[in-house]
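Hi all, long-time lurker, first post. I run a small reading group and we've been trying to get comfortable going from sequence to structure in the token notation. Rather than ask abstract questions, I figured I'd post a concrete chain and ask someone more experienced to write out its structure so we can walk through it together at our next meeting. Sequence below, copied exactly:
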Amino acid sequence: MAYMSQEGYDKLVAELKRLESIERPKASAAIAEARDKGDLSENSEYDAAKEAQAHLEDKINQLKLTIAEAKIVDTSRLSTDCVQILSKVDMTNLANNAKMTYTIVSENEANLREGKISIKTPIAQGLLNKKVGDEVEIKIPNGTIKLRINNITID
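-- Answer (accepted) --
Happy to help. Here is the structure in token form:
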């Protein structure tokens, strides 16, 4: 089961619809076009089109499974008392006083450019259940980072 926001769920549903209605017909057309070029035993274009179709079907099936297992979190019932999924956390890196803000989301919604980190990352794991003012030391791949939580909000 994957907890996610309504926005993240809607994006997954839209992506599934796009793959099924646009990409799947394109893949079928590519296979048909390659098939028309003759001998299938030595037709690398046909093999590539079949492989691309198989990858697309895997992606579609994976999305269907994720959507089926999704649990949409009602943000109106979340608290800002401590860090949890869908919390937006303002913090300071105590080593260099750099300010940073991350929203903790499901793996499927993670997007570093948007400031959304997966709940499975070391930073998110280290922040879970912490409160404003807490200082935490988190082991990350290249050492340890010390953070102070300045604020917790829910978007």
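A couple of things your group might point at:
Residues 6-35 form the longest helix (30 residues).
The chain has a mean pLDDT of 92.
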